[in-house]
Specification:
Elements (H helix, E strand, L loop, with lengths): L26 E2 H13 L15 E9 L2 E8 L10 E7 L5 H9 L2 H7 L2 E5 L20 H15 L2 E11 L1 H12 L6 E5 L5 H6 L8 E6 L20 H11 L7 E4 L11 E7 L8 E7 L25 H10 L14
Parallel strand pairs: 4-5, 4-6, 6-7, 7-8, 8-11
Antiparallel strand pairs: 1-2, 2-3, 3-5, 9-10, 10-11
C-alpha cells in the first residue's frame, strides 16, 4: 500500500468508512457492459465503441494518503509490465460522477488494450476534485498527493514507464488534469481535456513550468463551459478560443492554428461537425490539438453513453478516447524537453 511523501496540504479529509476492502474481487465489465449501459443510458450494444474487447477486468484499490483511505479503479491490459514498463493513463471523473461513471462514459478499454496502456480511475473524496473552480470546501483535500500514491501503487504492482504517464478528465476532472500539469509537470507527460476549457485561475496563478503536449475536446454549444470565456456558475474559465490561445502561448506555438474539418461519417445524423484546430511549431514537440465540436454539448465525443438532453448533443463523428490515446503515444517526458522539479 503506497503512501505519499509530499508534505500535507490543509487538513486531512475524513476517512471513507464505506470504502471497499483492498483487492475487491474484480468484475468482468465487458460481459455485462451492454446491460449496465442500457440501464444507465439506453445505448445500443452493437456500437463499435464496445467492440474489440472480449473481457475487461477492473479492480478497486485502496491507498493511504496522509492517514486517510482513498480508492481508485485499476485496469491492466494483457501484456502490461514488460521490459521498460507500461504507459499509465489517469482518468478523472466529473463532478458527482464517480470513478465507475467515467469508466463507462469514456470506454477507453479498446484503445488502451491496443496500446498496452494501464488505466487508473481515481475516486474523488467528495463530489469534486480540488481545483480553484470547485466549491471552497474541497480546496484543502490533498488530491495531488493522492495521485502520487496511485502512481506509486500501480508501479509497485505493474512496472510503469515513468516517461509515459498521462492524465485526462471530464469537466471538473479535466480541470484537475490541468492542476496536475502545473503541479506535477515532472511526472505527467501529456494531458487531454474533455468537456472543459482552461481554468482562468490556473492560467494566471499556476502557469505550466514547461511546454505540455495537450489535446482538448470542446463542444461549442456546451451549456456548462462556454465557448466564449465564462462558466455557467460564474467561475472564471477560458473559452475555446481563449484556451487554444493560452496553450499556444505557453507551448511557444504559432499563434494562428491550422483548421481542418475532420468530421467522420456517421450512420445517423447527429447535427454536429468536428474542426481540428492544430497549433504548429510548438517548442519541444509540445503539440496542441483542439477539437472544436460544432454543435456539441457537455459530453465525451464518441462515448457509448447517451447523455440527458439538457447537456446538449454528443458527436459520433470522432472518438475522443481513441484520438487521445494516439496523441499520448506520440509524447513522452523525454520527448518534450527536460524535467523540472515539481512543487
Amino acid at each position: 500500500m503506497a503512501s505519499s511523501s509530499t508534505a500535507p496540504v490543509g487538513p486531512r479529509p475524513q476517512r471513507n468508512t464505506e470504502s471497499p476492502p483492498r483487492a475487491v474481487s474484480s468484475r468482468r465489465l465487458a460481459s455485462v457492459a451492454c446491460l449496465i449501459i442500457a440501464i444507465l443510458a439506453s445505448v445500443s450494444c452493437g456500437s463499435d465503441s464496445l467492440a474489440g474487447v472480449v473481457d475487461v477486468v477492473t479492480t478497486w484499490r485502496n491507498v493511504d494518503v496522509l492517514g486517510s483511505d482513498r480508492r481508485y479503479r485499476l485496469h491492466v491490459p494483457d501484456g502490461a509490465g514488460g521490459a521498460g514498463g507500461s504507459p499509465l493513463l489517469l482518468v478523472f471523473h466529473g463532478a458527482t460522477q464517480g470513478a465507475a461513471g467515467i469508466e463507462l462514459m469514456s470506454w477507453l478499454y479498446p484503445a488502451a488494450e491496443s496500446a498496452g496502456m494501464i488505466l487508473a480511475f481515481p475516486d474523488a473524496a467528495g463530489d469534486y476534485w480540488n481545483t480553484p473552480n470547485s466549491p471552497p470546501g474541497f480546496w484543502d483535500i490533498p488530491d495531488v498527493q493522492f495521485i502520487d500514491a496511485v502512481i506509486d501503487d500501480v508501479d509497485a504492482l505493474h512496472t510503469v514507464d515513468r516517461d509515459r504517464i498521462y492524465a485526462t478528465g471530464f469537466s471538473n476532472g479535466a480541470i484537475f488534469a490541468e492542476v496536475l500539469a502545473c503541479l506535477r509537470g515532472n511526472t505527467i507527460a501529456s494531458v487531454a481535456v474533455v468537456g472543459a476549457g482552461m481554468s482562468a485561475e490556473i492560467s494566471q496563478s499556476c502557469p505550466w513550468e514547461r511546454p505540455m503536449p495537450t489535446i482538448v475536446f470542446f463542444g461549442d454549444a456546451d451549456p456548462q463551459f462556454f465557448w466564449d470565456d465564462g462558466f455557467a456558475s460564474g467561475v472564471g474559465m477560458l473559452g475555446g478560443a481563449g484556451t487554444g490561445a493560452w496553450l499556444a502561448s505557453t507551448n511557444h506555438c504559432a499563434p494562428d492554428p491550422t483548421v481542418v474539418d475532420v468530421s467522420g461519417e456517421v450512420e445517423r445524423e447527429d447535427e454536429t461537425s468536428v474542426l481540428l484546430w492544430r497549433y504548429e511549431g510548438c517548442a519541444d514537440q509540445a503539440d496542441v490539438d483542439m477539437y472544436r465540436i460544432v454543435g456539441g454539448g457537455h459530453t465525451w465525443p464518441g462515448s457509448p453513453l447517451n447523455v440527458t438532453a439538457n447537456l446538449g448533443r454528443k458527436t459520433r463523428r470522432i472518438n475522443a478516447s481513441r484520438t487521445m490515446v494516439d496523441f499520448f503515444l506520440a509524447h513522452t517526458l523525454q520527448g518534450v524537453g527536460p524535467r523540472w522539479l515539481g512543487r
